[in-house]
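Sequence, C-alpha cells quoted for completeness.
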Amino acid sequence: MQAVLDFINKHHYDIFIPLTALAVLRIIVCRAQLKKIASLREKKGAYHAVGGNYTEIGVWLGTLPGFVLALAAPKLWYAGLVLAVIGGILLGKAGKKKGAELDDIYREVALELKREAEAEAARQEAARTLEAGAEEIPEATEITENKGETNNG
C-alpha cells in the first residue's frame, strides 16, 4: 500500500491532469451528444434516450471539483479523491434522475406524435376509400316513360 501512495505522490500531476482533462472532455462530448439528439428529435419527431448522457454528465461534474482540488493542493490529493468519489456518486444519481424524467417526457411526446400521425394516416386512407367507393357507384339515370301523345281537346 505504501508503494501505491509513494507512486501517487511522485506522479501526482501525471495522474490528476489527465483525469481532469478527461472529465472536462466527457462533459463537452455529452453536451454535444445532447444537442445532436435534440436536433434529431426536432427533425424526425422520434424518441431518443438521453438518460445515459445526463448520468454521465452528473458523474463527471461530481468528480471534477475533487480532481481540481487534488491539482490545486497536491498534499490533499486524498481529500480530492474522496471528494471526487462522493461528488461523482451524488451528482451521478441526480443526473440519472433528471435523465429518467426527461426520457419519460420525451417518450410520451413521441408516443403522442406517433398516435397523431397514425390517426391522420387513417383519416387520409378513409378519405381515399370513400372517394374510390363513390367512383364505383353508377350515376343515377333518369328513367322516363314514353306514354305516347295525347290530344286533349
In short: The mean pLDDT is 84. DSSP finds four helices and no strands in the chain. The longest helix spans residues 77-136.
